[in-house]
Amino acid sequence: MSRTVGGVPVQPVHMASCHCGAVRLEVELPDGIVEPRRCDCSLCRRKGTIVASVPLERLRVVAGQDQLRLYQFNTMTARHWFCGTCGIHTHHQRRSDPNEYGLNVGCLEGINPFDLGDIPTSDGVNHPSDREPA
């Protein structure tokens, strides 16, 4: 958990946006940036984002809902949203926990995700949902 990143405070209610500003999010982060991580699945390794967990009710699209585009693949469970204008991935509804969003930390205004230091990588190639039941 991080309440400051690179000396910049993570506000309890923080704004996030895509690159062009068409999509704007309001995110409740009372505990700062929780469990930042990367993923090595086929999509995440290509987009290269650091994501943090946010309960669904703590993320609101406040502008640009009409600009958001949805991408789904494989099991069609995860819902990945990106700006239709600039292409930046802003958030996704997680496959491993559909009650949470994975927020693109790079979209948080004033926060540089590279200031978080070493970030663990989740094994998305061998996702638990892909395993056969025992």
Automatic annotation (TrEMBL):
Position of the signal peptide: none
The protein's name: Glutathione-dependent formaldehyde-activating GFA
Top-level taxonomic group: Bacteria
Family matches, as InterPro entries: CENP-V-like, CENP-V/GFA, Mss4-like_sf
PROSITE patterns linked to this entry: CENP_V_GFA
Keywords: Metal-binding, Zinc
Coiled coil: none
Protein family: Belongs to the Gfa family.
Keyword Cell membrane listed: no
Ranges for domain CENP-V/GFA: 14-130
Gene Ontology MF, one: metal ion binding
PANTHER family linked to this entry: CENP-V_GFA DOMAIN-CONTAINING PROTEIN, CENTROMERE PROTEIN V
